[in-house]
Amino acid sequence: MSSISDFKGKSARAIVEMALEKAREHESFHALLSLDEKRALERADLVDAGKLKGRLAGVPFIAKDNFLTLESTTTAASHFLENFTAPLQATAIEKLEAEGAICIGKANLDAFAHGGSTENSAFGPTKNAHDDTRVAGGSSGGSAVAVALDIVPFALGTDTGGSIRQPASFNGVIGVKPTYGTVSRYGVVAMASSTDTIGVLAGNVDDAELVMDILSGRDSKDMTTLPDFFKPIVQLDAPKKIGVIKEFMTDDVDAGVREQVTGYIEKLKAQGHTIEEVSLPMLKYALAIYYIVVPAEISSNLGRYDGIRYGERSKDAKTLSEVYGLSRDAGFMPENKRRIMIGSYVLSSGFFDAYYLKAQKARTLLINEFNELFNTYDALIGPVAPTPAFKLGENTADPVKMYLADIMTVPASLAGLPAISVPAGLTDTGLPVGVQLIGPRTSDATLLAIAKGVSA
Amino acid sequence: MAVAPEILDTYEMTIGIECHVQLATATKLFSGADNDARDKDPNTAINPIDFGLPGMLPVLNREAVTLAVKAGRALNSKIATVSRFDRKHYFYPDLPKGYQISQMYQPIIIGGFVEATLEDGAPVKVRLHHAHIEEDAGKLTHHGTYSLVDLNRAGTPLIEIVSEPDIHSASAAKAYASELHRLMTYAGVTLGNLYHGNMRFDVNISVAKKGATELGTRAEVKNLNSFRSVERAAQYEFERQIELLEKGEKIVQETRGWDDAAGKTSSQRSKEDAQDYRYMPDPDIPPIVLTEEDISAIQSTVPNLPAYYRANWEQLGLDRSVVEALLATQSYAVLVDEVLQTSGPDTARRVAHWFVSAINPGEEAAIIASNFSPEAYIELSDMVGKNELSSTAAKEVFQELLTSEQTAREIAEAKNLLQVSDESAVLAIVDEVLEDPASAQSVADIKAGQEKAIGFLVGQVMKRSQGKANPAMAQQLIRQRLSE
C-alpha cells in the first residue's frame, strides 16, 4: 500500500487519474458507490497550478458514503437517499480539502451504517480485499477495501460500534476510532449520536496520524466536539503498561485470531512495554447495552426520513400516513427496519425505564470499570473481532450471530474511548487479523505511537 | 347550553394552564436562521438545520438560555444548575426531524408562582410546576386536495410554562394569562405579540361538585391566543361539562379546539389517540450548566417587574384601575416611576393620570410614544402647578409631547395655550367685564349673596382673554373688586 509521502512532488492530476483507474480496475470488489472524476480532476489541476496547497495537497482519498459531499450523491447506501445530493459538505471533508486532499469518490457501507459486513448495502455487498468470497466487514467496508486495494492511501469512515475497526481488521489496514468528540460529526448522516465517531482507515500508522491531526478539533457546528487535544507523538518517552483483556482471549475466540494477537503482544513486550492480564466483568453486558441504546438513537435519528422534504417519496402514497409508511418501507433495508423497531420498542412508555434507562445505568458501570483499569494501565489490548472475515452470506440469516461479531468493538464505543485496529498478521488461510488497542479518553495519539513502535 | 345558575353554583372548576412563550431571540433555538418570520415568504427563514437535512446537528442558542433564566426571575422560580434536552418523537409534516427538542426530564425552570389580580381587586396566586425550553414546529396550510409546509416557525425558541391546577374561575384564568403576559414582556423574555402567536395558552379544565375531594376528568382546550378566549373557553367548558354531568354522562379526557367566532369548543382527539412520544435524552446537546453566579448575573439585568411598581406606587394613592392601566405599557410605568423618584408623588400622580386618561382608548396603537424623558413631563406638570396651563390645555400639550422633540413650554407657546397669570393684565380684563352693562345683573346677584353668579363673570373674563386668563386668579380679582 502506498503512503501519503509517496505522492510528494508528483503531478496531482497523474495521481488522481491513477487512483481513478485503480478504482475502475477493482470494480468487482464493489468498494465504491460513486466516483467524482470531474471535481477530483478540477481540484488536482488547482494543486498542480499551485492554487491549492496543504499537508495533503494532491493526495486522493475516499469518503464513506454517509459523509455529505458537494456535487456527488450521498446515499448512505440506502434507497432512501439514492438520488440525494447535499447542498453542503461535512466538516471532515472541508478540513481535508482545506489541506489540499482530493475526494475521488464515495465508499460502500451497510445502509445507514447498520451492520458489520457491508452486506446491508442497498446496492450490494463489498467483497473482502484478500478473499472475494468473504465479507469486507462493516459498516465502513468500502473504505477499508479501497485502502487495502491501494486505490487511495486513506479513507474516511465512521465507527459507532466497530464500523472502522472491524473492516480494518478484516482487510489488514489501520483503523482509528477516536475518542468520542474528537472529530466533528457535522454533515455526516447520523446513526447513534452518543457513540458516532468519525475516523480514518489508512495503510500505515503515520498516515492515519497525519489525517487524525487534521481532522481533530472543536467545531462550532457540533456541540459534542472537544477542544483539539490530538498531538502526534514521534516516539514514546517511556514504555507503557498494557492490559490484555482476559474476556477477549477465551476459547470462544478463533484460534488463528488469538495466535496473531499473542504474536503482536510479544512484539510489544520486545518494545519494552509491560503486559499484564486484566478483567472487565461488565464486558458481558456490553453487547446487550449496545443493542438497546444504539437502536433507540437510530429510531430517533431516522425519523427525519419521512418522504416530505427530500429523498424517497412513494409514488403510490395517497394519504399522509401512506407517504410515511410506503416511503420508509421502500427507503429502508430490513436491518434498518429491525433497529427502528427495537429502538421504538425500548423507548416506548412502559419500557423506557426497564430497557433504555437500565442500559444507560449499566453503561455507566462499564465506563467506571474502564476508568478503574486506566488508573493502572495506559492501554488495553485484545482482538478486534472474534473471527477473521467470514463468508459472504454466512451470517445474514441470523441477526444475533451478526451482532455477536461486534462484541469486542462495542465496549470502547459505549465508553467513548479511543480504540485502534492495527494489522497483526495473517491467519494460516491468509486472512488478515487486527489487534485492538483501547486507551483512556484523549489518549488517541499514544495508541498510535504504541502501534508505530511495533511497525517501525 | 342552558344550565340553571343555581346548578352551576354547586360546581367548582379546576384549571391548569400551559403557556407557550416565544422567546425574543435574534436567531432560532438551534440554528442561525432568523427568528422573526413575520411578513416573510414561506420557507425563507430556515437553514439546513431547521430543514432536518441529514447530518445536521443542533447548536444551542445561548441567548435563549439567558431569556429563560430571566423568565425564571419573573416567575419567582428556581433555576436548575443542570438542565438537559430531550427528544419528543412524532411524525407530522411540520416537524422536520421526526422529533421536537424539548426538556422532559430536567427542565431549566423549576417551581415558582404568579400573583394576579381579578378585576374586583381580589388576589389570585397560581403556583407553577416548571417551565422548559423547547423548539416550535412549522405550520401547515391546507388547500383542498393538498397541504403545504412552511418551516419558517420551525425551531423558534419557546418556553412552556406549566401551572399547577390552582385556578378556579374563568376570570382567574384570564387574570393569570394576562399577568403572565405582563411578566414575560416586562422581563424582556418575549415581544408578547398575541396576534402573531407569541404567547399561546392550553387550558386544562375539569369540574367537580363543590367540596368534592377528587377532581373530575379534564379536557384540554388548545391553542388559545388571547386572554379573552382563555376566559370564554374556560367558562364554556365549565358549563358544557356540568351539562353533561347533569345529564348523567361522562366527561371524556380529550383535546378540544376553540372556535372564537362561534364561542364554542369542539373535540379534536381523545386520549385513546394520544401518541407515545418515546422521549429520549438528546445526545447531540450537552447539558446546560449554570453556576449560581451565572444565574444572578443574568437575573440582575431583569428590569423592574409589575409587583415592584404596584408596591412603589402605593404612596400615590392611585385607583387600582389606574395602576393596572399604566402597567399595560411598560415604558409608561418606567417613566412614571422615574418621575416619582425625581420629582415626588404629586408630580408623578399628575403624570400618571395623563398617561391613563389623555390617551384615548383605541388610539394607543396609533400613538407610538417616542419621548420618554421624565424631565419633559415634569416640566409640564410644573407648568400646571404654577397655573401656567389649564388642565385642559395640559392634556393637549401632553398628547403632543408624547411624540415631540420640543419642550412642554415650546409646545404650549406654539399653541398659544399659556395662561395669563400676570395680575395687572387679568385685572384690566376684569375691569372691562365689570364695566360691561351685560354684567350688571350678575354683579347685583353676587352682592345679594348669590355666589354662583360669579361663574358668569369668570366666563366672560375667559372669553375676552381667549381662554388664556388664569380662571382662579380671575375669580379672586372679581371678588376683590366687588368688595372694594
The count of helical stretches of chain B stands at 16
N-end to C-end Cα span of chain B: 76 Å
Largest sheet of chain A: 11 strands, mixed
User: Unreliable runs of chain A, pLDDT <50, ≥5 residues?
Assistant: none
Q: How many domains of chain B, as an integer?
A: 3
Describe the global form of chain B: elongated
Characteristics:
heterodimer; A: 456 residues; alpha/beta; Amidase signature (AS) enzymes; eleven-stranded mixed beta sheet; 11 strands; 37% helix; B: 484 residues; alpha+beta; Arc Repressor Mutant, subunit A; ten-stranded mixed beta sheet; three-stranded antiparallel beta sheet
Describe this structure in a few short sentences:
The complex is a heterodimer of chains A (456) and B (484). By secondary structure, chain A is of the alpha/beta class.
Task: Explain how this protein is built.
The complex is a heterodimer of chains A (456) and B (484). Chain A is an alpha/beta fold and 456 residues long. Chain A is built from 14 helices and eleven strands. In chain A, helix 8 crosses helix 11. The longest helix of chain B is centred in the middle third of the chain and has 20 residues, at 227-246. Chain B has three domains: 5-292, no CATH class; 304-414, no CATH class; 423-483, Arc Repressor Mutant, subunit A (Orthogonal Bundle). Classes of the chains: A alpha/beta (456), B alpha+beta (484).
